[in-house]
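hey so i finally got around to running the thing on that chain from the lab meeting. sorry it took forever, my laptop kept dying and i had to restart like 3 times. anyway pasting the input first so we r on the same page abt which one it is
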Amino acid sequence: MLDLIQVSNNTTPCSAFLPAEKTPSLPSTPRARRPRIRTAKPASRELFLLTSMAATQGASDVLSIDKVDFLKLQNGSDIRGVAIAGVEGEPLNLTELVAEAIAAAFAAWLLNKKEADGLRRLRISVGHDSRISAHKLQNAVTHGITAVGHDVLQFGLASTPAMFNSTLTEDAIHHCPADGGIMITASHLPYNRNGFKFFTSDGGLNKTDIKDILERASRIYEESAHCGKQEQTGVVTHVDYMSIYASDLVQAVRKSAGNKEKPLEGLHIVVDAGNGAGGFFVDKVLKPLGAVTDGSQFLEPDGLFPNHIPNPEDKAAMEAITQAVLNNKADLGIIFDTDVDRSAAVDSSGRELNRNRLIALMSAIVLEEHPGTTVVTDSVTSDGLTVFIEKKLGGKHHRFKRGYKNVIDEAIRLNSIGEESHLAMETSGHGALKENHWLDDGAYMMVKLLNKLAGARTLNPNIGSKVLTDLVEGLEEAAVTVEIRLKIDQNHADLKGGPFRDYGESILKHLESVISKDPNLRKAPKNHEGVRVSGYGGWFLLRLSLHDPVLPLNIEAQSKNDAIKLGLAVLAAANEFSALDTIALNKFLQQ
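ok and heres what got predicted. didnt touch it at all, straight out
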């Protein structure tokens, strides 16, 4: 169903971008009458966008805007900020005006990307998760895009993977493909946060792209306070894109079962959407495939997340879906994060299929289809996973860095140099497949599990999730698994005013020196992040956080005593650095 809305925005050409000799002198009084400006043709496409940013007050108003450090909104390849005021120590920095500027900046960036002339109308899809700030930011983003003459496809409640897919879908009736997509989400962060993810048909944007967009947005934001009025027009179309996206998932499962209409008939599958955007999976995917979904929970969107954090890594979240499986005697449980780019599962016995187990399961499925392929993971995966992938499955495990985009980009790079890779996964639940355009899609990953179930049930209609559990048989798992975050005090004199990253690197370098002198410890010969060390039947990894002044320490061992021995080795090196807070590590060692 489509709903077309013509949007006419009174937007303002900024005098700062007119030729010098034609720039009128504007009175400083906010409500002063503006002189008529005839020159409206800027020197470049970006200036065109700058000059036509929408004013949100009356026709003669000059906007009063707060100073914003846009670059501080960058979170790797995403944008994150505080969109709801009221939490102590977290000032509002993702306002509607900021969102408008970012949306206009993305349009400017996209025009350059498409190498079109400045008058081309783009179609940009906009969707959001269940956060309570979603609607106001959706309106602001829509306003920012339509104000500069481009069209918006509003999807409403959507998943992050669907936004990327909208740039690939060939469907003229629904105005797809979109030239670009914006997802309004902050994943599993608290209710007061929100942010943006951006897509083109090439995939998600990288860190450099985000920096570029934020720099453009900063200029647009500053200039929008000094603008007069100019008519600009964009069209907003409301599209039920999630039905299109879900239909593709349904067809994928049917195809794997020989085009059987209801290949999951008789299977009882419960879903926990955590009050995020994943509730669609029940009515639009599982039920059309014939599955029984009684007992599914927290499907209604609620941006306050009253039941548990929608995060497949969260202990309470996994306990909730496990209990739902056991209470309902279900064959399988599925859980999504807020925007459905991550997921995990639980088998009929209540065994969690997340983190290393989920990577092992996906590796088993992918290596059946592509024998010998390389599986790229983040840096905190276990030694047992390496043995499982390489010794049991006959694949290759390429352990890389934390950050889902890092993992995906590394898999793409390996393929570009002739090393075949079909799977890139993080222990967080982000999983991307080459067959799915390297998109980290939690729903598609669960469809891969459903494909395996559906295919097996064509041979044995009584088979349940045991077919999945059997695939990870032989995965060696540690008895003790911990992550301890060691914080760097950026104000400590030991830093001498330098950046925390330099201080962190010096800690890692000293740790390497300490380890080299201990005959019981062995540094990993090939490692891409931090210092990874094996010993005492286990391993540890100390690395710098991607964004924060923190050194996360991961330890896995077969006993608590062995884990303590590994922790003591780290403490011996860490004690030399007085700006490093080791309270959490000491607490673990004293338990």
